[in-house]
């Protein structure tokens, strides 16, 4: 019972920690966390040990963060047209 409560507390803390993040930061958390989870499962299946699980989680988390970084670069490279207070049109990275 205590393990379940501890796991629930950790998951809730992670969820609340990303509540005030920007979209780019959320993307890092999602992809990094997902990569770590997949890596941990793969490490356990391949190595059958705690060490293999931890190595898999580290490699998966790093891989997921790299994917998020590339996605953020693509997202931030888009340009949108905006109009300033004097009516001039200019281009800047899109806000969404």
Walkthrough of the structure:
By secondary structure, this protein is mainly alpha-helical. The protein has one domain (23-93). 71% of the residues lie in helices and 10% in strands. It has three helices and two strands, in the order αααββ. The protein has helices spanning 2-17, 23-47, 50-76; strands at 79-83, 89-93. Strands 1-2 form a two-stranded antiparallel ribbon. The longest helix has 27 residues, at 50-76.
Keywords summarizing the entry:
71% helix, 96 residues, elongated, two-stranded antiparallel ribbon, 2 strands, mainly alpha, 3 helices
First-last Cα distance: 42 Å
- Measured as a percent range, the helix fraction is over 70%
Strand content: 5-15%
**Residue runs with pLDDT of under 50 for 5 or more positions:** none
Rounded mean pLDDT score: 82
Q: Work out the oligomeric state of the chains in this entry.
A: single chain
Indicate how many domains the architecture comprises: 1
Q: Order of strands across the widest beta sheet?
A: 1-2
Report Rg.
19 Å
DSSP E strands, number: 2
**Helix/strand structural class:** mainly alpha
Largest sheet: 2 strands, antiparallel
